[in-house]
Amino acid sequence: EVQVLESGGGLVQPGGSLRLSCAASGFIFSSYAMGWVRQAPGKGLEWVSGIRGSGDGTYFADSVKGRYTISRDNSRNTLYLEMNSLRAEDTAVYYCARSNGASSWRYFDQWGRGTLVSVSS
Amino acid sequence: QSALTQPPSASGSPGQSVTISCTGTSGDVGGYNFVSWYQQYPGKAPKLMIYEVSKRPSGVPDRFSGSKSGNTASLTVSGLQAEDEADYYCSSYAGGNNLVVFGGGTKLTVL
């Protein structure tokens, strides 16, 4: 069974850092690009970042560029999101999602349950 | 403000059909046949319902259909059922640095 499971969320102060992880199972991890999508409380979905299956291409939304880093360890079937200089507006549930191919961004066909990041003093 | 524009709400009675629109630009919806739709229940993860404008993943009822004309995509739910009450989000590949864009979501109510 295909599964992705996020972890690492929590409460952090403004300006702080947090690292999210996403453990994948049930598929050949390196064959799929992966992404992070967030949802602020009561709001819609917002694409945050993506990484190619090989890890050699990374992409970021303008809202997080320069503050977030995405990476993956294909030997551990794990995706990461390093978040720095966090702001109150980064508060959201962060979803890990599998894209439809190694370097394709046509749709996300598998989603995790999400992990909540709260930025507050 | 979301990159793609959706109506905030839509409704219909059981058995009826409802269509949700999703308007973008030539840089996203209009430029690629890579529009997808997601269903989300409160507190749950999104679920892929339509991909590449009109294709349905295995297991999605054929009551759900998608289409596109110019810069506007649409999701139609036919034969509405109570379980269809949820939030629906459209998405499109957008190229460039901002690879993927989402709509603001539409809350579908089954009356």
In short:
Chain A is mostly beta strands and 121 residues long.
Describe the 3D structure.
The complex is a heterodimer of chains A (121) and B (111). Chain A has 121 residues and is an all-beta fold. Helices cover 0% and strands 55% of the residues of chain A. In chain A, strands 2, 4, 5, 6, 9, 10 and 11 form a 7-stranded mixed beta sheet that branches. In chain A, strands 1-3-8-7 form a 4-stranded antiparallel beta sheet, with no helix packed on it. Chain A is globular. The termini of chain A are far apart. Chain B has 111 residues and is an all-beta fold. Chain B contains no helices and 9 strands. In chain B, strands 1, 3, 4, 7, 8 and 9 form a 6-stranded mixed beta sheet that branches. In chain B, a hairpin with a 6-residue loop joins strand 3 and strand 4.
List keywords for this structure.
A: 4-stranded antiparallel sheet; globular; B: 111 residues; mainly beta; 6-stranded mixed sheet; 3-stranded antiparallel sheet; 9 strands; 0% helix; 43% strand
